[in-house]
Amino acid sequence: MRSPNFEADGLPGSSRGAAGPGKFIGRVGALAVFLGVGAALAMPTAHADSDDSSSGSSSSSSSSSASSSSAAADSDSDSDKADKASARKTRTDSTTDTDTDTDTDTDTEASGDSEPDGDTDDTADTDDTDDTDDTEDDSAAETAAESSSPGQEDVDASAAGQVVELQVVEAADPPAPETPQAPLAPPVDLALAATTKRQAGAEAAATTSQSYAGVNVADPALTNQVSPLGTPQQIEREKIAMSTAKSLPVALMKLVLRFGFLAAAKEQFALVGGPDAANREALDRAIDEYALAAAFQQQILNPMDPAVVTQVAPPHNWYGLDVGGSRLLYDNPDTIYRFMPVNKTSEYVITGRLYDGIPADLTFSVLEGTAGTTSTILSLADLDVDEDGTFVITASGEAAAPGQTNHLQLTSRSTLIAARDTLGDWTVEDPMGLAVHRVSGPRNSLFAQLGGFVLLGGLVNDSPLLTSLVSLIPPLGIAESRPVRGTLTALLLLVRGANEQAKYMALATTDPDTGELRAPNVMTQPASNAEFLANQLQSNGYFQLADDEALVLTIDPGSAGFFTVPVYNDWTITDDYWNQQTSLNDDQAVANPDGTYTMVVSVADPGVANWISTGGLNQGIISMRFQDLDPDSTDAPGVQSVVVRLEDLDEHLPASTVYVTAAERAAQLATRKAGFDKRWAPYPQT
Description:
Blueprint: H1 21-45, E1 59-61, H2 75-94, H3 122-127, H4 131-148, E2 163-164, H5 187-195, E3 209-210, H6 232-245, H7 248-268, H8 277-281, H9 283-298, E4 309-311, E5 316-318, E6 321-323, E7 335-341, E8 347-353, E9 361-368, E10 373-379, E11 390-396, E12 407-409, E13 414-422, E14 433-440, H10 446-449, H11 452-455, H12 457-460, H13 464-470, H14 482-495, H15 497-509, E15 537-544, E16 549-556, E17 562-568, E18 583-585, E19 597-602, E20 611-613, E21 619-627, E22 638-645, H16 662-680
Parallel strand pairs: 2-3, 11-12, 19-20
Antiparallel strand pairs: 1-14, 4-7, 5-6, 7-13, 8-11, 8-14, 9-10, 9-13, 15-21, 16-19, 16-22, 17-18, 17-21
């Protein structure tokens, strides 16, 4: 799944220096538009925001992931899984004593019974003009703006057995002469603090402080609430996203999207007659999820008020909320996706904790521009983790200092940090706890609220003068209202929309070299694709199967430490994978004696343990991932595929194939649902 972009095409990374007068004038004109809009908004509301003139520390936390383990595997398979888990634990433990270098990488990226809350009905449209609702929305938005706008608010926290004290140090606000502030410690000190081993058992519990002008930053994610994902910040973001998705601008844009999605599918699936009836029925739900995803993306446009936002998530019901799905562009059932807005002009500290169930794969990727190209990646093997599982990552425009680990360098075009937990055994592995803090940089502003640093960051970030200029107008409560959020979300849908959807469909249906449509039921050989995580390989294809047919896949994982085989509908999203076995990863599947895996994709259950259900679809997409690859190995993954009739299936399966009874299948599905509920169960907390 590609990480959230904000345009179909990114801003050119190498054209700034060669920009001609016309381009410069155009960009300055764009800045003028932002400032003009800001001035217009500021005139009637400045009195309400007069206290929001300085920037405070901001933090947020979040965490999650998805996948399920098979109950049909034999004792040897169970032993293999235990060995894998042990190996992951050992590998992570070893990083506490070894400094490693940061790699580079690139990235992007159903409800069965419940409909997403992003659906827009007549009532929702009417709500957008309802005085009472607008008043409540504006009031809530202004309250949120006051709490998140630059101020000297204190928050408590501990990470790696220490109290890390932070404060946003604004370039535009030097300390008053009578109250001088202590200088901000360099990022390297934070990273080194995270890896400092506690000296003597009980003494290690003693609190040590690193002073940042006496302001404490809380890390609620590190307290390991019932779900590391279910943080107060995440719940609030979900409420905002669901409200935004019901706004009138989004409702209108969804009509445009529906037309564009359908046109793209007719073209991409032309060899099989376009999308079939079942996929057409799923179109409205897919657009609802796409719109809700954009409503989350709107909330990560402001790098001056960062938060950890979990999105690209399935529908879930927790904390009294019925949250619609926000899946899009090949979401992975095994992966938790979290995003943090960042900008080169600021410094950030990311605090986190790994729990006993270490993920099969874990990455932090720095995404560039509006297209989401990855410039830097920090993987689990590179992460320096303390003995108690906590870690600190710094991110800034500066390169890592000599000997510094856990650092991500931001460029002029950096917009997001994407964190992914990929879970193999859903019932054992846990997503990490995670929080982000901005510790220095320009004040928060209306320009930042409206996404200016994302859309024009390549121009602004390298000019202190322009950065100061666009930061003149403070954040306004009206910019957090539903009408404004809805308008920005609709713009995101407009610039991404059907063109991006067609591009992702084409990964499965079109030969990138010739541009010709590919035949169904043929998987590509695993290869790197710029639309996905850069340090993974993908095998893509689409299927067209009758009820009595099956697609048999023979998979050689090569040097991959993890792989997964999910099924998608024509709109590139998963369906009810928590109640149906519509995906399998190497932890959940049973291996052949030679280390390969044989999977059976079909509508009907053939009774084999390694069955991947199509979820009732006769037509759909398969997008395999191969991750945790050994960079020094020449053992490349491989995939073979063949269509057979179910009555002839046994002739195409290995002699060692494991079959399951109806009771064993039910147990397999129950284990799967339990693993899903571990992440998204209906927790009662409020």
